[in-house]
Write a structure and sequence with these properties.
The complex is a heterodimer of chains A (about 500) and B (about 150).
Chain A (H helix, E strand, L loop, with lengths): L1 E5 L2 H5 L2 H14 L5 E5 L11 E5 L2 E5 L7 H6 L9 E3 L5 H4 L17 H6 L4 H9 L1 H11 L11 H9 L7 E6 L8 H8 L1 H15 L3 E6 L4 H13 L6 E6 L9 H8 L23 E5 H13 L1 H5 L2 E2 L2 E2 L1 E8 L5 E6 L4 H8 L9 E6 L6 E3 L9 H6 L8 E6 L4 H15 L5 H18 L4 H18 L3 H5 L1 H10 L14
Parallel strand pairs in A: 1-2, 6-7, 6-9, 7-8, 12-16
Antiparallel strand pairs in A: 1-3, 3-4, 4-5, 10-11, 12-13, 14-15, 14-16
Chain B lengths: L5 H10 L7 H12 L6 H9 L3 H10 L11 E6 L2 H4 L3 H12 L12 E6 L11 E3 L2 E3 L4 H12 L1
Parallel strand pairs in B: 1-2
Antiparallel strand pairs in B: 1-3, 3-4
Helix pairs in contact in B: 1-2, 3-4
Classes of the chains: A alpha/beta (about 500), B alpha+beta (about 150).
Chain lengths: ~500, ~150
Amino acid sequence: MKIFVPRDAAARAVGADKVAAALVEEARRQNLFIEIVRTGSRGLFWLEPLIEVETADGRIGFGPVAARDVPALVTGRFDRGHPLCVGKPEEIPFLKRQTRITFARCGIIDPLSLDDYRVHGGWRGLERARSLGPAKTLEEVTKSGLRGRGGAGFPTGIKWKTVADTPADQKYIVCNADEGDSGTYADRMIMEGDPFLLIEGMAIAGLAVGATKGYVYIRSEYPDAIRVMQRAVELSPVDGFDIEVRVGAGAYVCGEETSLLESLEGKRGQVRAKPPLPAHKGLFDKPTVINNVISLVSVPSILAEGAEHYAALGMGRSRGTMPIQLAGNVKQGGLFEAAFGLTLGEIVDDIGGGTVSSRPVRAVQVGGPLGAYFPRALFDTPFDYEAFAAKDGLIGHGGVVVFDDTVDMAQQARFALEFCGIESCGKCTPCRIGSVRGVETIDKIIRGERPAANLALVTDLCNTMKFGSLCALGGFTPYPVMSAIKHFPEDFTRPLRVAAE
Amino acid sequence: MAAWSESRAADILSRHEGRPGALLPILHDIQAAFGHVPAEAVPFIAAALNLSRAEVHGVVSFYHDFRREPVGRHVLKLCRAEACQSMKGLELADQVLKRFDLEWGGTTPDRRLTVEATYCLGLCACAPSAMLDGEPMARLNSDSIDEIACEVSR
């Protein structure tokens, strides 16, 4: 009997290892032969640990399973009448409604099995790229309409072409796996669940632009992803493209591309002024493609299935699919890969099922700590780069964090500025000083001191940060602050609190 | 954790010889060996990499991960970021800090436990989350965090 148990960090965090150990122990006790395969996660986190049993009829899932449930499950030989049985995972509406292209294998295969990877369609993109050659490969990526999934949404094909057109003795592919946005975990999931896909994507990028060396810069908060990626790199059968895994050191700002390059060079992660663009002068001053994990893992299927197939999905200038990550106070939290265009309301209410606390949804932060807070009144906004920008927000890396009605939006605005202060690289004044002054001013508003005047001051300060900062950390911190003030003004008008004697 | 040893540090440095931009990997290895980045390591690494002491110090002090003081036997990192906030993660953190009478980054007098803040572990669909000695933990509540705290402080 073959049983699949996730080894994804989030599944392990809720007991997957204990479940796997209990399965081995109970099978031994009952003299049942079982084979356990550790997989990535399907991304249905409210069901984790979600174990799957292979049957003649396909895989049958059970979740969330605790170690104490295991004896009965084994005794009943994973009977479908068990209360934890969720049937075929593909039939669960949350998964059935998705368009899984990038995450097609995640949660299904053994992430470090080269056989599994190949059998499930791996390397087809790289093989096609090799037969097309660099120029046509680049053309495919451009035609697909793929835009950077890290947050900025810059067209990937144009970035690659700039590097391809810049002559140099050495070029680099750098994968930005410094996924620091709260509410996002797509990079982590794919690195832990399908690491060869990232290797394939980077190798295709290398082929397209003429680079032979790649770096994957993974944040230190992801030890599981680091282990899996390192092992995958050791196992990689790709010739002519060398990859090295580098580990960050707890600096959020290193997710900013130029800061990441500084960090890779062994320096303080301080932002570089642009120009020069990394595509011209990047890592060690060489032309460098720096892409987010999800941008790179989107590439193999674009090559394998053709650009048109990918470009046919989506809306407006947002083509293809986006792994939306539902997080926080949400009933069905998880990864939902879908074509652009779902409304925020559909995502939060229908797919996410509302809050886990069963209280009304009051605010949703989209796009990480630098993303705007959306009220229910804006739930008709479609998930698309331009549509979110039009509502003074951003989709960023696709994180959606749900808050119920107990949230205090003045505290959320304060935290955004506090976080900016903690993580500021210190290079530019609006971010370094503005964040600290911002916290002090919000504190005055919270205490009820001259709220109108102090709100005007925060607004002015946000304006300076937005237009005067070198990078998105200082430049986008105003999004959560100003959206909280604009959409939830009632949280910023408080009676003056008299200090206790 | 091991006391500062120049030969051990030299051994670590030799493993990174010729590696471009090796300072972060070196510092990670130094911290893994000694539990923190000892003051003695700074001039030693600077000399080996042909950097100034100020440059190495600048890097050590820039990154939140690198510690200049030893930590407790166990390190509990509690997530303070938004997804965990939405699930009352800050209240849990308060509970832990109060219980041990600690500030963020502090270590108990018996040196058994250090509590640090972290900003996202990528376990946001199972919030609130934490990491104990590198192991992820999620869907925490008041009782489970108490149990963990109790276990590591014994």
